[in-house]
Write a structure and sequence with these properties.
The chain has 834 residues and is an alpha/beta fold. Helix content is 36%, strand content 18%. The structure holds flavin-adenine dinucleotide and flavin mononucleotide. Flavin mononucleotide binds at residues 494-497, 528-529, 572, 648, 650-651, 701, 737, 774-777, 797-800.
Length: 834
């Protein structure tokens, strides 16, 4: 078997090592256009997790890598005048040059042929270079990096895409030994600059400077030479560099390209490393990805028995390569997804600068969703304790007046049995100082707890160990005041249609369903999509609020919730529009085709999907009638005792379909631009707000995006305008969901997948609007993460509450949070104050 690697970066070299090690009979040649000591960039960084894979794959190179490592466990974040240090992380770095030298040496030991200064521009050259008397090579590795020539040659087959980042960055080095992974956020007259920096060798650190395009241009860096860049950055970061020199190595300003390929193999050619995929440097994973590709490719060869006899082992190479892609593709997509989220965070970091430095740091550390509140607590309990205390103190500002019956203990840690004054010498005591600034910038750096090289991998905390005891209440339990309503905590039972009503009236099922979830401890339970007219229902099983019998049935549920739990109860009022007149979900959820069907209404006479009934385009009389029905339903909800109402302007139902340009194609003043499309939903909102008591809050649920930007659908930027407009009209809570207006929507699902929309609205709109996030928020850990990072004020959980109605009681027991109200019948299970 003859193998040619085009490219001698980490991917090509590491595969050569692993393959030669496992199959010494293979003849492997690596062609690298550069000289052995001629490489771009400075250091590469690996996390602890990554190292385990390398140790298993090739202990010899692993030993060399670890010998040259700089270790550190801290992350320091400089923002404004503050520095917040987080500890307990495990990283190591080494220079890219050293890594490649280790691989060169290992290749030589194993008998891999290295040819430097050998550029291979296409398949024919690769075939010729690796061919011998027995014909062309059996395997050609396209390990030629980001701008892979082999990938471009077969672009029709590999189908690559390149998504360019919005920021500009420049990879520099600093002749300074940092003691921690260091992030610096520096506001200037031109805009925000940020530095990602980490040590990798004695007296050398990687120093990547990043800013947005307009900042870059305003600062004149678009015209800068390398020397100009160094002069500019040396001046800008003088206090952090402390006299250290900045050094260059092809340090041009670039945009980050995220490379993806639909296919990674073609005949006997395989893409590996950056040629196949890239991941933003802020999660430090490009080299790891390339090396893990090499591991996966070598493992795929190991899974397939070579055929043939005396002429040497021969594999069914295309089958091996298909196996390699199959085994690796999804993992890479996940890493690219996390990298994309992290990249987005840095591209929008100026949005968070108004956050307290402690919250900003928590936000930064949890940005890619890989680290949550709970993970971080494992690594750095003292930091999370400080964040929780800070959050509790903020929330206590909004706590109920003295003597209020519920949750008045929140913010008073002693009353709850929380340890308010940790003993001297404990981790909490060490970090209980006022949080911003925690320390002046320069001394903090100089006094870093873990100088490079002092840590060993074993010293890094074990992520599986039991979490440390809490010192402050988790953010989930913070109360929230909305007008005259005090919510006990930040967990909301999201509205969930039960399709079990009779003539629109909720019955026993609804009493038990909503009652048990209220008993389960959520701060707010929102009753399902409840329609304001009979023709506004999705199905005949939907609840309504158009007559007094329905109001009385709802009143019974409200009375149970108020009488037996600490939860507030809201109701979601809606009109299904063109998505109405359907069978029950468990009967297919399709449009009714028999005599039970009813005419539907919409902004435009276009069906929701092909084959669905064509709705009637609403005229002024329809609009008045529906608006008045919303008002009448709101009055009934008030009489029934509801604490809050939520207007459903999401998921493609009537009001939502006015907002989205995909479903509203009117040519009158209710269609066209966003402010015109918003006009009718706002008329309904204003009329309902006027009828709903002033002391009771209102929520609106929106679909923040149609997930069809390319087709002109509603975008996340539009939803900021929607949010701002509603806030100006007195909206208290915006419940941020997505999609539903078109069956073609392609949501990118994943845990907490709608949080970025809530986050953006919360930071760009502000002004006291409480933002509720929803969608795959899987439990208390996610809730704590979202709240502590400031991404939302409330978290709505739907399906998790179907699995366990007692999500909050469970969290109260797990975290021993005693101020959570428990039903008296369940008190034996409640944690006792210590
Ligand atoms: C600013 C920045 C910071 C980064 N920081 C990190 C980090 O901290 N940690 C990390 O893991 N990763 C980091 N990366 C990513 C990392 O450098 C790459 O992802 C990694 O090097 C990919 O390895 P590779 O072998 O696929 O490609 P490369 O390392 O790019 O290697 C490809 C090789 O092929 C050679 N070549 C190209 N064309 C030809 C040809 N026609 N003929 C012969 N040879 C050819 C090139 O000279 C090169 O040596 C960073 C990247 C950037 C841009
Ligand atoms: C059974 C069920 C019924 C739902 N009914 C409604 C509804 O009445 N109104 C609404 O706005 N969303 C409704 N949704 C959507 C949820 O409120 C929530 O937005 C969605 O399920 C995502 O949250 P989750 O990942 O926590 O489930 C429903 C979801 C489920 C699972």
């Amino acid at each position: 078997m003859r193998i040619v690697s085009v490219g001698g970066g980490p991917g090509g070299l590491y595969f050569a090592i692993l393959m030669k090690r496992a199959h010494p009979e293979c003849a492997i040649t690596v062609h690298e256009r550069n000289r052995p000591d001629d490489t771009f960039g400075f250091g590469v960084v690996f996390s602890d997790e990554t190292l385990g894979n390398f140790e298993q794959a090739d202990p010899e190179s692993f030993a060399q890598i670890t010998k040259h490592f700089a270790y550190w466990g801290d992350i320091e974040t400089f923002v404004g005048d503050a520095c917040v240090r987080s500890t307990g992380h495990g990283f190591c770095g080494l220079s890219r040059m050293r890594l490649l030298q280790i691989f060169h040496e290992r290749c030589r030991q194993l008998g891999v042929e290295l040819r430097f200064g050998s550029e291979i521009k296409n398949l024919a050259e690769a075939a010729a270079a690796g061919g011998g008397p027995a014909g062309p090579p059996d395997l050609i590795l396209a390990a030629d990096g980001l701008n892979s020539a082999l990938r471009d040659e077969f672009a029709d087959h590999f189908r690559p895409t390149i998504e360019w980042g919005r920021a500009r960055f420049c990879w520099l080095g600093a002749r300074r030994q940092l003691g921690a992974f260091t992030f610096i956020f520096k506001e200037t007259e031109w805009g925000l600059f940020q530095v990602h920096s980490y040590p990798f060798e004695k007296n050398l650190s990687t120093w990547i400077v990043e800013c947005d395009e307009s900042t870059w241009r305003a600062a004149g860096l678009d015209q800068a030479t390398e020397a100009d860049t160094v002069a500019f950055c040396s001046d800008l970061f003088a206090e952090h560099l402390q006299g250290a020199e900045l050094v260059t190595n092809r340090s041009v300003w670039r945009s980050f390209p995220t490379v993806r390929n639909e296919r990674w193999h073609h005949g006997n050619v395989v893409l590996i490393g950056d040629a196949a995929h890239t991941a933003h440097f802020s999660i430090g994973s490009g080299t790891k990805l390339a090396m893990e590709d090499a591991i996966a490719l070598a493992a795929a060869f190991g899974r397939h028995a070579p055929r043939g006899g005396s002429g040497g082992a021969k594999w069914d190479v295309p089958a091996v390569l298909a196996d390699y892609q199959e085994s690796r593709y999804v993992d890479c997509l996940k890493i690219q997804k996390a990298a994309r989220v992290s990249q987005d965070w840095f591209e929008n970091s100026s949005r968070y600068l108004q956050q307290d430095p402690l919250q900003f740091t928590f936000n930064l550390l949890t940005r890619s969703k890989k680290i949550t509140w709970e993970n971080l607590r494992q690594r750095d309990p003292a930091l999370v304790d400080r964040v929780d205390r800070w959050f509790a103190d903020q929330a206590a500002v909004h706590a109920p007046p003295p003597g209020a019956p519920l949750h008045s203990a929140y913010g008073n840690r002693k009353a709850q049995g929380w340890d308010d004054a940790p003993a001297a010498g404990t981790a909490a005591a060490a970090t209980a100082a006022p949080m911003a600034p925690t320390a002046p910038a320069a001394p903090t750096v100089a006094a870093s707890a873990n100088p490079v090289g002092e840590r060993s991998i074993e010293a890094i905390p074990d992520a599986d160990k039991a979490p440390p005891a809490l010192k402050a209440p988790p953010p989930l339990f913070a109360p929230l005041r909305l007008r005259g309503l005090q919510l006990a905590n930040r967990v909301v039972v999201s509205p969930m249609c039960q399709y079990s009503a009779t003539d629109g009236a909720p019955g026993e099922w609804h009493l038990v369903h909503l009652g048990s979830r209220a008993v389960g401890g959520a701060g707010l339970v929102i009753g399902e999509m409840t329609d304001v007219t009979p023709h506004g229902r999705i199905t005949l099983g939907c609840t309504g609020m158009w007559n007094d019998a329905q109001a009385a049935a709802w009143g019974r549920i409200v009375a149970f919730v108020h009488g037996n739990s600490g939860a507030a109860i809201g109701l979601q009022l809606a009109h299904a529009g063109r998505k109405g007149s359907c069978t029950l979900p468990w009967e297919g959820g399709e449009p009714l085709r028999d005599g039970r069907a009813w005419p539907t209404l919409a902004p435009t006479a276009e069906p929701f999907a092909p084959g669905w009934p064509v709705p009637r385009a609403m005229d002024r009389a329809d609009m008045d009638a529906v608006r008045d029905a919303f008002v009448a339903a709101a009055r009934r909800a008030d009489h029934a005792g509801f604490d809050l109402i939520e207007l459903h302007m999401a998921h493609g139902y009537l009001l939502s379909s006015f907002i989205s340009p995909l479903s509203n194609r009117r040519t009158d003043e209710y269609g066209g631009s966003l402010d015109h499309r918003l006009r009718y939903p706002l008329e309904v909102f204003d009329a309902v707000r006027a009828a709903w008591p002033a002391h009771k809050p209102m929520s609106v649920r929106i679909s923040a995006t149609d997930w069809l930007d390319d087709e002109g659908g509603l975008t996340a930027a539009d939803s900021v305008v929607v949010a701002r407009t509603l806030r100006e009209r007195g909206l208290d809570v915006l419940d941020v969901s997505s999609a539903g207006n078109s069956p073609r929507s392609q949501p990118v699902y994943g845990r907490m997948y709608q949080v970025p929309f809530a986050d953006r609205i919360r930071h760009e709109v502000g002004g006291g609007l409480a933002v509720m996030s929803v969608g795959a928020i899987q439990g208390p850990d996610h809730v704590n993460t979202i709240l502590a990072a400031g991404r939302a004020d409330l978290c709505a959980l739907a399906r998790p509450h179907l699995v366990d109605p007692h999500v909050v009681l469970g969290a109260s027991a797990a975290y021993e949070y005693v101020a959570q109200p428990w039903p008296k019948q369940y008190l034996p299970a409640k944690p006792k104050p210590k």
